[in-house]
Amino acid sequence: MNSMQQAIAAGAEQMLLALDAAERRDETFPRRAYAFLVEFARRRDGPFSGEDVTDAAAEEGVATADARAWGAIFQRAARNGVIRRSSTLFKRRYGHGSAAPGWERSA
Which residue range forms the structural domain that includes residue 81? Predict the structure, then answer.
């Protein structure tokens, strides 16, 4: 496994650990987060950032201590055809201003 593959694997592991910790604190978090993301995407006509979703969710009380837990929620929604990656790049508010591809509702 090369260093890029190792970094991806480590990131995926941390995401799943964060989701597991969030679920231990609040067993309803995964279900509520997924439902929030589905509804958020349904209401959007254009691309959006992951931070748009997590910030809006936090305002509605759907939050967790470690935002990495949302990664698994986004992956599930993408696998289920709810959302897909957008070609639009967003300046990350919590990622030191780095650019990241956004999301959009699937057709």
Answer: 3-105
